[in-house]
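2024-03-11 09:14:02 DEBUG pipeline.ingest accepted 1 chain
2024-03-11 09:14:02 DEBUG pipeline.ingest length=323
2024-03-11 09:14:03 DEBUG pipeline.predict start
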Amino acid sequence: MNHLTLHEQNIVSQIQAETSKKNIDNISRTNAYFSFFKRYPEIIWSFLASMVSRNGGWNMCDLEGSIFPQLLAPEVRKRLFMTYERANWLIFHDAYPQLMLYQYSTKLNRPLFHLLPLFHVSRFMQKEWERYWQTKDNGRLTTALIINEQNVIQDPVIEHPVYKKKVFHSFIFNFQDWFHFSCVLFPTCGGEVYGASVSGFKSLSKRIELGKRLVRILFHPRLFPHFFEFAEKTPHTGSRFDYEQYFKTRSAGRTPILRKTFPIVEHQQHVYIDWSKERFVSPLWLHAPARFKHPIQLTDWYYEKSNQLQLLVSLKNLMEIHK
């Protein structure tokens, strides 16, 4: 940091400290993204990140709820939790300094994106932030951030030998229709659920495509106020009760709250590789519009999924009785 001005050194140190403080667990990350969005609503990715992070928390807590402990062994649940947690942590570790640098740039009225390499942010994102500062093209920046976050987790999580073998190639993961790896839900205070899913979570392009669809749903002019109201009114605990409390019919499943269920995980710093030097950025990632094959209103689907899981538990218990 020798070539930096004293002011720039202070900014870098403050951002590092702030990122570490907010990257403690899924709750702190979700809240940090949402707080940022309320201050800088033009950076719409931050609301998407907050709502997807909420889903991560619900998925973690599902693992210790009333259903999954009856279906999955403790070591399998622990591995699934660590998969969510690692991806969640890595994305925040990469993305939050970007958001903070934008905040400082706005306050000082001059771009500070030349500092991004100090946070190991990809060259791809440095160019995209510089472009955004000139053009104010929200759509382009949002797509770039989606591309970046999915590339950030590709090698350390999706392609990591342990996760690859024990999680992504496991029978349980490939039976993923029963799980929520592949579906992101946006609830409303009116008891409705919207969202989108992806088959082939391991595919980088399919996850980027999912992100683009989620942005379209989340910022749909008619729906956005309802999602924002939910986020504003509903503290994120990790429990499914966060949104099931608004349902007309209560589901039978129960999930605990995150901070009473999981310990704080200390993450080791991984080796930093700029993915954009290793991987070609497909023009389709940047320019292909989001495509919708399925309805985005998932309220009935959600009830059906809950009932299917209850049925699965009942069948398993019945088979064990008759052994």
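2024-03-11 09:14:41 DEBUG pipeline.report The mean pLDDT is 89.
2024-03-11 09:14:41 DEBUG pipeline.predict end
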